[in-house]
Amino acid sequence: MRYISTRGRAPALDFRGATLAGLASDGGLYLPDAWPTLSQDEIAGLGGLSYVDTAVAVMAPFVGDALTREELRDLCEHAYGRFAHDAVTPLVQLDHQHWLLELFHGPTLAFKDVALQLLGLLFEKFLHGSGDHLTIIGATSGDTGSAAIDAVAGREGIHIFMLHPAGRVSDVQRRQMTTVRAPNVHNIAIEGDFDQAQALVKAMFADSDFAGRFRLSAVNSINWARLMAQVVYYFHAAVRLGAPHRPVAFSVPTGNFGDVFAGYVASRMGLPVERLIVATNVNDILHRALSEGDYSQGSVVPTATPSMDIQVSSNFERLLFDLGGRTSLADQMAGFEATRAMRLTNSQREGAARLFSSARIDADGMARAMAWACERAGQLIDPHSAIGLAAAREAAGIDPATPIVTLATAHPAKFPDAVERATGQRPRLPSRIGNLFDREESYATLPAEIGAIEAFVAERATPRG
């Protein structure tokens, strides 16, 4: 298995190389050079497997010869052994058609754990014995940071620098990052929004002098290995609802497009996905792109769903590349980066319309979905999951016999104020989180300027040997 860049100017890499690199050297994102497929019989055979066994079956074709099957299984057993539910990602029925896929049973209570617990182990495995030091640079709108920090805290040969927008993540999200006291963990609150944080990360990778001094890698969903791990739960859920003998639709609360792109990959591998519903909040660049072909950046509006307060969705580039015949996106993306506006081509729009639909859900729609889930199904859900559920419940054109699965991306206790306003009930943090609000925080506050960020990293990271 080889990995190629969406911009066509970076060398092809194997799975190990793509995992350690994160972002391609030409600024593009890595994708497999061809999609592996599973037959109907192979998909049906997943129905009786554990989550770990499903993960091995789904991910092995992407890993190639970078790991043996036994090594991959050991990593998966270690990664998912830390989850609080034996099913890892259990399904919960809401009514005759709607289901929740609970992705928040990992150590930091968010779906990012499913991928990042494995990614941290992959980094350690691939670095072992090499003498290399890895400098992880990441940006978070809430959950990626805490999940990534938990996954690599204390691991030898790794330093992690996580940028978050100051004042724009929840108290729980921030504290899950800033109370981790490990010498290789560095938190940075930038005076700006998530899009600026994400742009700073990409700028550091693109700075040849800086990238030449340190071995940089990424934990954001620009890292292919993270997306690969997320493909697994689409298969795991769908076979339990009748796949491959009946299709399943998924509704995905979406910011950076990584989680829903994993569903697209599952579809390309042969899973019968009826529809992927892209659910956005009022920061609706993806809704406008899919419904009107208008991928134009607006101003970020802070909401009760901070992980979705994004106006540049990095992983959308992967979809456009695949839908456009896999020709280089270098010119198209350069135009977008220069003007912050782009029109999708006809082939991109037509390709997306075959599988994707979208919905823009405002604060009232989000609150109604939380209230409905509580009153009618006895479920407290977080605001992001509520955006997905609202979009699922208003989706048109899906056969009533087709299950619609909403991805529940975070534990409701990460956003207790919003949940309480909508339902009258205040969710409690699970006991395994411990005394989060009694721990001392540690982070730096810096301007959203590349020079300030690079100087901070350079003082603390280990240069290349």
- The helix count comes to 19
Radius of gyration: 20 Å
Record the strand order, biggest sheet: 3-4-14-9-10-13
For the record, the CATH class of the domain at 91-106 and 224-423 is: Alpha Beta
Structural class computed from helices and strand pairing: alpha/beta
**In angstroms, what separates the terminal alpha carbons?**
29 Å
Cofactor: pyridoxal 5'-phosphate
EC number: 4.2.3.1
Enzyme class: lyase
Family: Belongs to the threonine synthase family.
What does this structure look like?
This protein is 42% helix and 15% strand. It has 465 residues and is of the alpha/beta class. The protein has a domain at 91-106 and 224-423: Rossmann fold (3-Layer(aba) Sandwich). The strands form four sheets. A six-stranded mixed β-sheet has the order 3-4-14-9-10-13. Strands 8-5-6-7-15 form a five-stranded parallel β-sheet, sandwiched between helices. Helix 4 packs across helix 5 (112-127), helix 6 (143-152) packs parallel to helix 7 (171-178) and helix 10 crosses helix 11. The chain starts with a strand and ends in a 5-residue tail after the last helix.
